[in-house]
C-alpha cells in the first residue's frame, strides 16, 4: 500500500475518454449511461486479473458491477492492488462466506416500521429512498438490496415513510440514504425535501451520498438551488482514499458548500486500501481543503462475502492515535463499529485514561507523556486549626505566602 501524496496536484481531465465532447463528459446523464457494467466493456480498457474476472462473473448474483467513466479514470490499470480498483472491481473473495457474516448484518430490516425506513435511535430515522447508486462499492453494507442483484426487490414507500415520520414527533432528524438519494430526479428530491421540511418536528435533514465522488457532474446548479431552497440540508459524502479527491470532486464540494450545505465525510476502513495512518492522514487533509469535515471511519460491517475487506480494529485505533494531536482537530474523524445485529454505532477510541477515581484522573497525551488532573479540590491553605478560631478566611499574608500549586500538574513519568 505504498502511496505518495502530491499535495500540489488535483487529478483532472478526461483520461481514457479524450475524444468525448466536454459537454457530454460534464453531463451526468452521459456519465451514467456510459458506465462500465459488463466484463467485455471492462476488457476494452484493462486486463482484469483471474481473481477479478471470477468476481465480475459472480457480481450479477451479489451486487452489480457499475463504474462511471469519470471514476474509472482514477484506477491504476497496471496495479491489481490499486486502492480505487479494489473498491469497485469485484474479486473472487465476494463468493467466500464466513460464519459471522449476515445479509443484513446491522439488523436493519427488523428495525423498519415501514420498508425502507430504519428507526433504531430515539430521535432520528434512516430513510432509504432508492436502491440504486452511480457505481457500486464492493463492500457495501446494503449489498443485500442495493442494485437488486439479489432480488431483494426494494420498492421505496415514500408516502408511508413520510406519514410515519409525521406521526412520530420524537423524530427530529431524518437521514436520506439508499442506495444514493442523489440519483432521484430533481423534482422528486424537491418534493421529498419539501414534504420533510413541512413536518414541524423535523429539525435536521441530511443526505448520505457517494454521488459527489462517483458522479460529481450530478451536482448541478439546479440541484444546489433545491438544497438552498430547503436548507439547511447537511450532507455526508463517502471518500476512502486521497486519490478520490480530484479537481471535479473539489469543485462539486465547493458548489454544495456555496449552496449552504455543510459537508462531512464517512470512510470505511478497508484492508489494503486505507488501513494505513499515512493514507488516512493524506485523505483527511485533502478533505479539509475541500471544505469537508471528516465525520466517521467505519469498521467494515459483517456482510456476506466481505471478509477480504476486513481490516484489523487495532489498525483503526492506531490511525486515530496517529491523527489526534498530530494534526488539526477538525481533521480527526470518529472511528466506530456499527454493532452487529443492530446495536448502533459505538465509538472505538484509543485509551488515554490510565486511572480515574474520586480524587484524580491519570492520563497520557498524544506523545505518550503522562499527566495528572485532580478531580477533588485541595484547599489552598489547609485548615490546620492554627488559624485564629472564628476567622472564616485566611489572612491576606497567609495567602500571599502560600505556595501556589503549579497550574499544570507535572509529568509523572
Ligand atoms: C448511522 C445511522 C444513523 C445516523 O447516526 P449518526 O450517528 O447520528 O450520524 C441513524 N440511523 C441509522 C439506522 C443509522 O445506521
Ligand atoms: S454508494 Fe453507498 S449505498 Fe451505494 S454501493 Fe456504495 S456504499 Fe453502497
Automatic annotation (TrEMBL):
Kindly give the Pfam families that the UniProt entry links to this protein.
LAM_C, Radical_SAM
UniProt domain Radical SAM core: residue ranges = 119-331
GO terms assigned for molecular function: 4 iron, 4 sulfur cluster binding; L-lysine 2,3-aminomutase activity; metal ion binding
Query: What residue spans carry the region label Disordered?
Result: 382-413
Q: What is its EC number?
A: 5.4.3.2
Instruction: Could you list this entry's UniProt keywords, alphabetically sorted.
Output: 4Fe-4S, Iron, Iron-sulfur, Isomerase, Metal-binding, Pyridoxal phosphate, S-adenosyl-L-methionine
For the modification N6-(pyridoxal phosphate)lysine, the affected residues are 345
Tell me which domain of life the UniProt entry assigns to the organism this sequence originates from. Bacteria
Catalytic activity from the UniProt record: L-lysine = (3S)-3,6-diaminohexanoate
**UniProt record similarity statement:** Belongs to the radical SAM superfamily. KamA family.
Q: What is this protein called?
A: L-lysine 2,3-aminomutase
Amino acid at each position: 500500500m505504498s502511496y505518495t501524496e502530491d499535495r500540489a496536484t488535483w487529478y483532472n481531465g478526461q483520461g481514457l475518454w479524450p475524444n468525448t465532447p466536454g459537454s457530454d463528459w460534464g453531463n451526468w446523464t452521459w456519465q451514467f449511461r456510459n458506465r462500465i457494467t459488463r466484463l467485455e466493456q471492462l476488457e476494452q480498457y484493462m486486463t482484469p486479473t483471474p481473481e477479478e474476472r471470477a468476481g465480475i462473473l459472480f457480481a450479477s448474483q451479489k451486487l452489480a458491477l457499475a463504474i462511471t467513466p469519470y471514476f474509472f479514470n482514477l484506477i491504476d490499470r497496471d496495479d491489481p492492488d490499486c486502492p480505487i480498483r479494489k473498491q469497485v472491481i469485484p474479486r473472487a473473495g465476494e463468493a467466500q462466506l464466513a460464519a459471522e457474516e449476515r445479509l443484513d448484518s446491522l439488523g436493519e430490516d427488523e428495525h423498519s416500521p415501514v420498508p425502507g425506513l430504519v428507526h433504531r435511535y430515539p430521535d432520528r430515522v434512516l430513510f432509504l429512498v432508492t436502491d440504486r447508486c452511480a457505481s457500486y462499492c464492493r463492500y457495501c453494507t446494503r449489498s443485500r438490496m442495493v442494485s437488486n442483484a439479489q432480488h431483494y426487490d426494494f420498492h421505496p414507500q415514500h408516502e408511508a415513510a413520510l406519514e410515519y415520520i409525521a406521526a412520530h414527533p420524537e423524530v427530529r432528524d431524518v437521514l436520506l440514504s439508499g442506495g444514493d438519494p442523489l440519483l432521484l430526479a430533481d423534482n422528486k428530491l424537491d418534493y421529498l425535501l419539501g414534504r420533510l421540511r413541512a413536518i414541524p418536528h423535523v429539525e435536521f435533514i441530511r443526505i448520505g451520498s457517494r454521488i459527489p465522488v462517483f458522479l460529481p457532474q450530478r451536482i448541478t446548479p439546479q440541484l444546489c438551488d433545491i438544497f438552498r431552497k430547503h436548507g439547511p440540508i447537511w450532507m455526508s459524502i463517502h471518500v476512502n482514499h486521497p486519490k478520490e479527491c480530484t479537481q471535479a470532486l473539489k469543485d462539486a464540494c465547493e458548489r454544495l458548500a456555496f449552496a449552504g450545505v455543510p459537508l462531512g465525510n464517512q470512510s470505511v476502513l478497508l484492508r489494503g486500501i486505507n488501513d494505513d495512518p499515512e493514507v488516512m492522514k493524506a485523505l483527511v487533509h485533502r478533505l479539509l481543503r475541500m471544505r469537508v469535515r471528516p465525520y466517521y471511519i467505519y469498521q467494515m460491517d459483517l456482510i456476506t462475502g466481505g471478509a477480504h475487506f476486513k481490516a484489523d480494529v487495532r489498525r483503526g485505533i492506531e490511525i486515530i492515535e496517529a491523527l489526534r494531536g498530530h494534526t488539526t482537530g477538525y481533521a480527526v474523524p470518529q472511528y466506530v463499529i456499527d454493532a452487529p445485529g443492530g446495536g448502533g454505532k459505538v465509538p472505538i477510541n484509543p485509551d488515554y485514561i490510565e486511572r480515574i477515581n474520586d480524587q484524580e484522573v491519570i492520563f497520557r497525551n498524544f506523545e505518550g507523556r503522562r499527566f495528572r488532573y485532580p478531580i477533588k479540590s485541595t484547599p489552598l491553605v489547609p485548615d490546620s486549626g492554627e488559624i485564629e478560631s472564628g476567622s472564616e478566611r485566611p489572612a491576606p499574608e497567609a495567602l500571599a505566602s502560600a505556595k501556589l500549586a503549579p497550574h499544570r500538574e507535572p509529568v509523572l513519568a
